[in-house]
Structure prediction request, 121 residues.
Amino acid sequence: MFVAGLYAVIIFVVGSLPATPAVARGMSDKVQHALGFALLAWLACRALRRLRSGWSLSRRAVNSAQFTVVIGGVLELWQGWLGYRSCELRDWVADGLGAIIGVGVYAGLDALFDGRSRAPS
Prediction:
């Protein structure tokens, strides 16, 4: 969970900057949100696999998506509180779509590779 937590902190730090970093310029703001939060959801799924090994894949996916959407909502509220950023519902929606993409990719890869490890030899 350390990597997912560290990444969430990085999202908050970058999301608190007055200007978009040069690396992200030229890419749609909503795409940036979706990609960033897809990675956060994927990292959260990965962390829960290790921390909650008894949980089903669907439970890990739902909890990871919820965690990611909450982080996105808190970030938007924080940005609204800052004088130089704004709180946008569409950004939060993009965060949520990213969360769905991230857990979907994780679940697909987990089923693919975990299924291979359980295949009879």
